[in-house]
């Protein structure tokens, strides 16, 4: 049914748990996994006349965020490897994570987007996460929203 599944993570514990559930789902489908971490774009300090010497350059920031993204993607890729699935990780940069998720899903010809109902910015169980809600509003691809009933480790 699904041949390529985009699994997103924001690096939070909840998101990592959800992403590993996405790998289990991909294994049931025999689907390829594309794991995605969306990092914020580099921001120049706009309210200072001189950039402080400790402020990272754009190149330093990009390298650092690639490393951070790789760290967040590692558990997903490890789970996909253990499940015997074809897999790949991607770190993308955008100020709007939801639109970047939708764009990557289209560009990479993913059949399904698998994401959590809440991530780093979730407000408990009250509302659907803002990124998830925006993805649902902006894509025509199927989105499987995984709802975590209890926090990881409980």
UniProtKB/TrEMBL annotation:
InterPro entries, alphabetized: Rossmann-like_a/b/a_fold, Universal_stress_UspA, UspA
Pfam family, one: Usp
Residues annotated as domain UspA: 1-145
Family according to the record: Belongs to the universal stress protein A family.
Entry-linked PANTHER family: STRESS RESPONSE PROTEIN NHAX, UNIVERSAL STRESS PROTEIN UP12
Protein known as: Universal stress protein
Species of provenance: Massilia cavernae
């Amino acid at each position: 049914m699904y041949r390529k599944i985009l699994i997103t993570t924001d690096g939070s514990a909840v998101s990592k748990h959800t992403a590993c559930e996405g790998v289990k789902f991909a294994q049931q489908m025999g689907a390829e996994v594309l794991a995605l971490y969306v990092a914020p774009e580099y921001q120049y300090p706009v309210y200072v006349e001189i950039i402080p010497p400790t402020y990272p350059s754009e190149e330093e920031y990009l390298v650092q965020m690639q490393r951070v993204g790789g760290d967040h993607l590692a558990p997903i890729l490890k789970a996909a490897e253990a499940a015997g699935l074809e897999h790949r990780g991607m770190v993308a940069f955008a100020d709007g994570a939801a639109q970047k998720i939708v764009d990557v899903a289209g560009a990479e010809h993913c059949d399904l987007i698998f994401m959590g109902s809440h991530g780093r910015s979730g407000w408990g169980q009250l509302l659907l996460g803002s990124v998830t809600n925006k993805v649902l509003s902006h894509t025509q691809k199927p989105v499987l929203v995984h709802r975590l009933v209890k926090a990881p480790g409980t």
